[in-house]
Amino acid sequence: MNKEYFLDVTIEQNINEYFDTLDKNKLLIFSPTSIKKIKISNKKIQMENWHNITKNKQKIDKYIESINSRINEIITFGGGSVIDIGKYIAYKLNIKCTCIPSMLSTNSYATNKVAIIENGKKITLNAKMPDKIIIDNTVLKLSEKENLYGLADVLSIYTALYDWKIANEDINEKIDENIYAEAENLLVEVMKFINTNSFDKITGNNLKLFEFIGKAGYITNLYGTGRPESGSEHILAKEIESRIDIPHGMSVSIGILIMSLIQDRYNLNVEKAIMKMNILEDSYSYGLTKEIIKQSLLDVKLREDRYTVINRNRKSEKEKIMIIDKVYNIINEVGNNVNN
To answer: What is the reported pTM?
Structure first.
């Protein structure tokens, strides 16, 4: 299997021109906020707002039953939720899937897994790796902040790989040395890219962001689970997200800072990268407070299938509160003005 598969199927194209070529046997699933960024003149395309399908598995399965049998390709245009729905439908129908990300907030365009809801809980299911990925830089430029959230998520490799080492030491979980090295090399490359370029150069190079974010996703494809880039920081992020509606890249960034301290390996270059991208500058507007961070960390739940530093639980409550204070102060020191 080609390790750079997601790049092999990538096409740079004006998506308005692409939409003009589609016939009536194509089904376009779109985000309403994304569709406003373009103008579709082709009236042949069958179109569906993802809000009408939702991410509820039962509703998606019911929608699949209603799809015309002549549909031979699913096309998605939007963010992670839209892409996940389209990949799942294409997988269930065994038809082609074309993905057009309108933002790079997640690596869903480069994986064969989806996150959907069943019985009120988020679950991960197999899906179809897109047969084609179309990127339009003009469209991606309209989602600068969201693209940086996706890049910040790649930094989770730092804490996730150490969690993998902990699992190896404590419960003898095997480490795939090739996958580990792939993830570690990607982290080094991304850190260098962020910390040696200006903010404008980072946000202006969406093709590079697409490559970095997609490669992180595809490394997990190769391994079979999210272990190489998802550890204690994602577990804490999920706890924060259960309390407030906050961008995933923001909650994961907080998770990286806190969990690296709990791992006793805080890295100033990782902090510098997160702050340089201004990931946390709007955190107060999402209702993030010190109390929410505190309760999220103190109440964080173990993940049965992902052994991490959380399982060791070697920090006292007093030490955890000191860690929270440090991270909270770091956020304030860069002028983010998080409200208490």
So the answer is: 0.91
